Amino acid sequence: MSDQDSVYHTAGFGGGVPRGVRPAIVVVDFAYGFTDTQYPTAADMGAEIAATRTLTDFARSVGIPVIYTTIAYQPWEIKALPWLQVATGMAALQVGTRMVEIDQKTGIQNSDTVIVKHGASAFFGTNLSALLTGARVDTLVVTGATTSGCVRATVVDAVQSGFNVLVPSDCCADRASAPHAANLYDMAQKYADVTDSTDVLTWLRAVSG
């Protein structure tokens, strides 16, 4: 055990996350503005999209809810929202542009739910919690982009909303490796079971009968 791990263990962090029997998958912001490198806000997320699709394709086939999110702003919001004064590149994610469309490589279907959000968390200012509660979901699998931003914010709010959370690390992407790794570590210590797509797929198969 490293000194860092020892500090967290002594403080009582890094406990296990229980897994229920009614999962759902939230795919955070795999929209072209994040996945298509012709845009300055994007990074190469092909491997993470492919890993996520192994989960969503299976989930859809057995009736497990698959929910996508995207960030899309109206023009009047650009100067009104403080977040966009810090993360100015996000202002390009405007309603009606290709940048806010979910990347077709994700395998998204017309029947899938798409949540449009205006902040980092998929829960903030949306009806996501109500949708999950209505479907009696007890465990949420969170994937997408970016690990250090919208994925982390969604994970924190998911826990605070009463859901057990699994984060397959190979299904999460970021623009840089350091914040990606640091946030996965922190989520594992405080909020979620950080695992991989193989483990999650095995569990989804088990709970689907």
Mean pLDDT: 94
Order of secondary-structure elements: HEHHEHEHEHEEHEH
* Unreliable segments of 5+ consecutive residues: none
Proportion of β residues? 15-25%
> Helical content, roughly?
25-40%
Q: Give the oligomeric state of the chains in this entry, treating copies of one chain as homo and distinct chains as hetero.
A: single chain
CATH class: Alpha Beta
Which fold does the CATH topology refer to?
Answer: Rossmann fold
By DSSP (H or I, 4+ residues per run), the number of helices equals: 8
Distance between the termini: 37 Å
CATH superfamily: Isochorismatase-like
Largest sheet: 7 strands, parallel
What features would you describe in this structure?
By secondary structure, the chain is α/β, with parallel strands linked by helices. The protein has one domain: Rossmann fold, CATH 3.40.50.850. It is 38% helix and 16% strand. It has helices spanning 3-11, 32-35, 46-61, 83-86, 128-134, 147-160, 177-190, 197-207; strands at residues 23-28, 66-71, 113-117, 139-145, 164-168, 172-173, 193-195. Strands 1, 2, 3, 4, 5, 6 and 7 form a seven-stranded parallel beta sheet that branches. Helix 3 packs parallel to helix 8. The longest helix has 16 residues, at 46-61. It is globular. The termini are far apart.
